[in-house]
Design a protein that fits this description.
This protein is 28% helix and 31% strand. With 177 residues, it is α+β, with helices and mostly antiparallel strands. It has a single domain, classed as Gcn5-related N-acetyltransferase (GNAT) (Aminopeptidase), CATH 3.40.630. Strand 1 and strand 2 form a beta hairpin. The structure holds coenzyme A. Coenzyme A binds at residues 47-48, 98-101, 106-112, 134, 138-141, 143-144, 147, 176.
Length: 177
């Protein structure tokens, strides 16, 4: 089956560990400036393969390019975008995964919830595998990815490539305790 990139992500509310609600939904073109705003204040810049870019013109250019070749999932606190997952097809079977959670919202279970739901969405789109690259020094990212079930494929220099299979649904993925 060919992947269907326009598979619908049904918006849903999640609760952060402290009980506050966030809305998760697919990115829409109207979200562009709110997303730029998240990255404007995002720290640290350039934490993942040079991303996010360090200034607004380059952030806007990056996000503009992404719109044409990927799908995105947002976490919103009211109108404020606080989390962003990027799903970029790299073949008919595979997607590249990237996630950014604003520093004000980290360690609240947002990354975990977004990653699980994004993997489910990818599976519903008909993709079989999800790849990512992260720096070996990025302990939060590595811990999150391992917890969700990503496994290291290769290490090169200070980076590693990880992969997870989502073929046949995500109900078989390991769940956090
Ligand atoms: C990586 C990132 C997305 C994690 O998001 P988050 O919402 O803070 O993560 P969660 O609160 O859902 O944590 C999920 C799990 O990740 C791990 N984790 C998250 N933050 C961690 C930290 N600071 N130290 C160690 N492990 C951490 C833990 O295993 C955690 O599970 P636990 O809370 O049961 O221990 C976030 O830190 C981030 O946006 N960092 C900057 C951008 C980035 O590096 N993106 C990855 C690109 S490859």
């Amino acid at each position: 089956m060919m992947p269907v990139l326009d598979a619908v992500f049904h918006p849903l509310e999640i609760r952060m560990n402290d009980g506050r609600p966030l809305l998760l939904r697919a990115f829409d073109a109207e979200d562009f400036s709110a997303l730029v705003e998240m990255y404007k204040g995002f720290q640290p810049k350039r934490v993942a393969q040079g991303l996010p870019p360090p200034d607004v013109p380059r952030i806007a250019q990056w996000l503009d390019r992404l719109q044409t070749k990927s799908r995105s999932l947002l976490a919103l606190d009211g109108k404020r975008v606080v989390g962003h997952v990027i799903l970029c097809p790299i073949s008919d079977a595979a997607v590249e995964y990237t996630i950014f959670v604003h520093q004000d919202y980290r360690c609240q279970g947002v990354g975990l919830a977004m990653t699980r739901l994004a993997l489910q969405w990818v599976s519903e789109m008909g993709f079989a595998e999800v790849f990512l690259t992260t720096e070996l020094s990025n302990v939060p990212a590595l811990s999150l990815y391992r917890k969700v079930g990503f496994q290291t494929q290769n290490s090169f220099g200070d980076e590693c490539e990880m992969k997870i299979s989502v073929a046949g649904g995500t109900q078989t993925l390991p769940r956090a305790a």
